[in-house]
Amino acid sequence: MGVEMDKLVVLPCNGLDKEAGALARELSLHLTRQGAKLVCPVLYQRSPARYKKDLAWGELLVIDGCKTGCASKLARERGLKIARRLNVAEMLDKMGIKGQKDPVPETGHLSALLSLLPDMLLLRKEEEEEERFEEILFSESVEMKEFMVGKFLFKVPVAGYYFNENDCWARVEGNLARLGVSDYVQQSAADMVFFDPPEIGAEIDQFGEAGSLESTKTALDIISPFSGKVKAVNHRLVENPELVNLDPYLQGWAVELELADFSSERELLMDCNEYYSYLREKVEREFREKYG
Amino acid sequence: MGVPRSKIPWCPEIDYDKCDFCMECDKFCPHRVFERRENEERKLVVAHPENCVVFCRACAKTCAPDALSFPDKKEITALIKRLREEGKSGGGDG
Ligand code: SF4
Ligand code: SF4
Tell me, what's the pLDDT at A137? Predict the structure, then answer.
């Protein structure tokens, strides 16, 4: 088959729990037969040193079974650089196949996945290139206003952002908007460990969910300030969710939307000044409740 | 959102057929929406719905038996827009 196996190192889901997992395992074995190297998630967890050489040899492809994304999480915990990611549950969704409960994979499902595989592997690369191109639209600096409560410092941009009361922001450029979560979310949730992006092309309602984040403390949905169609997701954030902690308003963006109804939806949102006052009041109240 | 919070009916609803009173939702939510009732059959109630952050559904994720539900977001957004319009027109000429 026409996929160039340019030195793939495959880290799959363990594959024992559900059919999607078992299929992830089968896909990995298939790729191994084509020259890819395999990282066993269980052994890797116990003795990561065993795979040092293999991991240095090629590009890492992570194959998750279901949307829990255990393999991605493992890679991230170990600080591995993920070059590509496949998710069997998403691939099945795409083909309109319903995964079954029985963890022994159905042969028809496997061959359907194999037929999709070459495209999926190429697609991931193209998406990355598209992203690099789009990055230029949104400039990478913004002026911040700060306030302190106790020993905590909170930052809010001075202009150019819209916020909802769920502490999610949108930065608008023409008919596009980037979405993310505010510095306050980042500080209260602590270290982000996982970003589950929405599907490219998905239609999102105003205040609907545009992907989710998971930190060491909690899980949270990104509540979209605007409605629109998902044009891009931040692949860097999939690999490095801690960008939300490091730079919540710029590099920590999560999703890019093509806006559907900016002017009327904007009325239900706060601008930077309004959010600054709203947040300050909220943080001060929380502080009083906690420390009296 | 330009509409008094008391007019927006957004808060969790507890399905008491499912709830096992593990209190995870209450431990999670910092906004004092729930209240524990030690001596009552319903040991947890939504005592302060107006404290719930509109469009937040975060506590539902902590609920293992899936006992928490919320109103439809689309309907609530439409309601907020309608209330805003009414507010603007002064609501006096009907
Ligand atoms: S939805 Fe959010 S604010 Fe409302 S009760 Fe649950 S956690 Fe608290
Ligand atoms: S988390 Fe769910 S089961 Fe536990 S107390 Fe809350 S509603 Fe009940």
Answer: 58
**Could you say which of A219, A223, A286 has the minimum Cβ distance to residue B61?**
A219
The confidence band for A69, taking pLDDT boundaries of 50, 70 and 90, is confident
Q: Best interface-test mutation with B: which of A163, A165, A212 has the largest number of B CBs within 10 A?
A: A165
- Residue ranges per structural domain of chain B: 5-88
The phi and psi torsions of B23 (rounded to 5 degrees) equal: 70, 10
Scanning chain A, the segments in alpha helix (DSSP H) are: 19-33, 41-46, 52-57, 70-77, 88-94, 107-134, 183-189, 235-239, 243-246, 262-266, 272-291
Which amino acid is located at B68 in the chain?
L
Residues A240-280: tens digit of each pLDDT: 999 999 999 999 999 999 999 999 999 999 999 999 999 99
Q: Cα(A91)–Cα(A107) distance, rounded to whole angstroms?
A: 15
With CA atoms as reference, the chain B residue closest to A189 would be: B28
Architecture of the structural domain at B5-88:
2-Layer Sandwich (3.30)
What atom in ligand 2 is closest to the CA of residue B43?
5
Mean pLDDT by 10 residues, chain B (94 residues): 92 97 94 94 96 95 95 96 83 44
Q: Is A164 on the interface with B (CB under 8 A)?
A: yes
| Residue ranges per structural domain of chain A | 5-128, 144-291
Specify the residue with its C-alpha closest to ligand 1, atom 3: B52
ipTM of the complex: 0.86
Task: Name the residue in chain A with its Cα closest to that of B3.
Answer: A268
A203 touches chain B (CB under 8 A): no
Task: Tell whether domain A144-291 is in CATH 2.40.50.100.
Answer: yes
Q: Which letter does DSSP use for residue A105 in this model?
A: P
